[in-house]
């Protein structure tokens, strides 16, 4: 019974905060209306993106940037959608959108005082030069700081810059 209570209270807190996956729907709808029908998308939440941006194909990102670049070339990927919701997305992909919950390794460093919350936030601020932000959705507080960030960022991939 304690496990059910914990699951229930966690679920109620998430629903009550309205911070669930709510920005994926408007992002997917925008992609549906504004991206070419044959566009292929790499997304940190590929199933939700595929659902809302149908009929576009959406893929999960490879685990490292080198594999990503190769995948983009092989699958003719032109767009990338990064969101704060999935903790399972590769860290290199967490460009300006830190995950809703920081990875354990980073949050443990903050708790132990090895890094400040600001230093933890700065880990996610480096966007690769071949990505151009074309649309953002929602605002959320960056964990452990007073800064806000988009909940979803849609990037156009400059395929010629993938060297």
Structure in words:
With 163 residues, this protein is an alpha/beta fold. It has one domain. The chain has six helices and seven strands; from the N terminus they run H-H-E-H-E-H-E-H-H-E-E-E-E. Helix 2 (24-34) packs across helix 3. The longest helix has 16 residues, at 2-17.
Beta-strand content bin: 15-25%
Strand order of the largest sheet: 2-1-3-7-4
Number of strands: 7
Order of helices and strands: HHEHEHEHHEEEE
Overall SS class: alpha/beta
Number of domains: 1
Q: How far apart, in Å, are the first and last alpha carbons?
A: 55 Å
3D shape: globular
The percentage helix is: 25-40%
Provide keyphrases for this structure.
6 helices; 7 strands; 36% helix
In short:
This protein has 6 helices and 7 strands.
List the helices and strands and how they pair.
Blueprint: H1 2-17, H2 24-34, E1 40-43, H3 46-52, E2 57-59, H4 65-75, E3 77-83, H5 104-111, H6 117-122, E4 131-137, E5 140-141, E6 148-149, E7 152-157
Parallel strand pairs: 1-2, 1-3
Antiparallel strand pairs: 3-7, 4-7, 5-6
Helix pairs in contact: 2-3
